[in-house]
Amino acid sequence: MQNKVDFIIAGVGGQGTILASDILVEVGYNAGYDVKKSEVHGMSQRGGGVESQVRWGKKVYSPLIEKGKADYLIGFEMLEAARWTEYLNPSSVVYVNKHKMFPPTVTTGQAEYPSETAIEQELISRASRMEWVDAIGLAKELGNPALAGVIMLGRLSADLEVAPELWLKVISELVPAKFVELNKKAFLTGRGIISKSI
Amino acid sequence: MKKLLSGNEAFAYGAYLAGVQLAAAYPGTPSTEIVKNCATYDTIYAEWSPNEKVSLDVATGASYAGRRALCAMKHVGLNVAADSLFSASYTGLKGGLVIINADDPGMHSSQNEQDNRNYAKFAKVPMLEPADSEEAKNYVRIALEMSEQYDTPVLIRTTTRLSHSRTLVEIDDSKRVIPSDEIPAYERNIPKYVMVPGNARRRHPVVEERLQKLAALAETLEINKIEPGNDEIGIITSGVIYQYARDVFPNATILKLGMVWPLPKQMIIDFAKRVKKLVIIEELDPFIEEYVRILGLDCIGKEVYPIEGEYSPSLIREVSYKAGLLTEAPPEVSAASIDLPMRPPMLCPGCGHRGLFYALKRLDATVFGDIGCYTLGAAPPLAAMHTTTCMGGGFGVVHGVDKMGVKDKTVAVLGDSTFFHSGIHPMIDVLYNGGISTLIITDNRITAMTGHQDNPGSGRTLLGEPAERIDIETVVRGLGAKRVEVVNPYEVEQVMKVVKEGLESGEPSVVIARYPCVLHTKEKHPVPTVDTEACTNCGNCLKIGCPPITKGENYVAIDNILCNGCGLCARVCPFNAIKKPEEQ
Known about the structure:
CATH class of the largest domain in chain B: Alpha Beta
CATH topology of the largest domain in chain B: Rossmann fold
Number of strands of chain B: 22
Mean pLDDT of chain A: 93
Shape of chain A: globular
CATH class of chain A: Alpha Beta
Oligomer: heterodimer
Number of helices of chain B: 20
CATH topology of chain A: Pyruvate-ferredoxin Oxidoreductase, domain 3
């Protein structure tokens, strides 16, 4: 067991960051950690940027992570991942779903969506490692774009010392019954992929 | 066994364990899930009341009847319920009454960031403040016992961060208070419960005496405790801020207050003597700090820690370091150096409110708005709402504006749930006092913003039972409105026509723009296609502010994952370049 593992999941309202962080915090607890999780409900869920923070540790006080202290940043959307650079440090690891969702300023032509290279630069310059994950592409192949979140968790899980069976057990408990098999498949798909790492 | 519960789920579990028999609320982020979860326990009667004041009166009634009751609301909800709170403070009660009140520092989902600890002092009732879900569970019982023992309503303060964080809670039903299944007898007591001046004058000293007793209790109460450490710095704090303080000052001596009103005077004096530097870390107002200063004690407070905004461990570390309270500098971090376009919340794809606001924009109406999803009508590119203050505010505001003879095309908009909450009274005012205002009820048949709670117009109770729907049109006509129209908000031309007629009529008019929330009904239609030959890239469809539509080089594109297929974009396209599938 590690002293602490701090995760930030960033995405857009409706992408399933809350379910993913529910799974992540439950896995930490089942693996023997003290855990806490913070999330935001309400207005920002209407298509705004959303974030969940999950903390695993021997003893966790604050449900919020401090700037410069996140161990993992998991971006469900490219632009949203780039907003959390302040939380990274030179040993952080970043996984970003290769998915662009244009905010209104971009769709109406008033602002430009930053380039993939620019986002990559921002993240990698502050972390030890950054990896694009084609979770949205794989999710569509599995038949439902909403599976991208669990695919991202699958990729993350390959880095953590927690048995995949435990993840699968938690997923079975938290996902609606009729989607359990599909989500398990998505998790294992994510766990099996090693994409372009920078 | 331990389980991860949000603060709000833990309050509900605590209510179950403490034998609460009635829980009432009007939904409001971040408090909604408290009573929603109370409804999952079969020993608790739970309801969505039309507004917070009603919910507090209902809970007070249950406690007058000798049963334990809970009421929950967001911070601004207590403004609505304040009258009831102040009276309940005077009358006291019989069964325990706990009011859980959720502040929203940082205004994640609110119009202000008032600090409701002030209400405890103002209404002369005790207030507890838990710091995690386990305490949230336990404090409900402590509050109810205190309520019964001291004959007072008890407030529990939570904040967004506590309500919406998941932390571990001990699950143990073995010491549960089993609610009585006997039919309660109402115990009459006119001097205690009838607050005419003569009786109220006799109750006031009782309230003052009660406060003295509670202040004495605060000195020995287990939930006010000193965590000894290095006495160089002594911190007084409470709630989730305690957790942040623990992360930032792991070795400091901390006085953690579980009861934030009344405060333990002697305990604070002794604590100040014990430590070299006394530091008060509290979110929002200098509530504890002012008390400490009145005691003549020197402390560090709001000159270091800001009054406005939500705290975080990072913020506490930064400002504490700058003030010389920490020797180690915070980690150096930097925000992204590229421009990151903001992503504000938007009306959902397919939302019926969009058609209404597009029509009002086309009419160039000045719109007096209200609180709900439809407040997003103020966001660009629609920008079709010009005031938003508080629940039920818009109808009264437009009446005042209209009485002054303002020449704009003035209308007011509120939602179905807001109408039942506090929109009926200003409508009565307009109708009775010779108003001429155009009042629009955007009726999506659910309380959507807070996560789709049923309301009196939706035909179902919180316990999932069918209920006779209160028909808005009948209510409005019953109040005496003559000019009442029901429209489908997607029919932009029709909406414009009806609103225009109302404005020109010189009499009050009511427009009910009805379409059920598509996020709730999961209604979805085939995605329209863009005829790239016909599209001139004029940008008209972008004016409806629908997230799936993107401006391209030569023509617009529609994201078929996001799109809900409502077809509003096709209706507003002047070149017939966006086609609904059945038209192809």
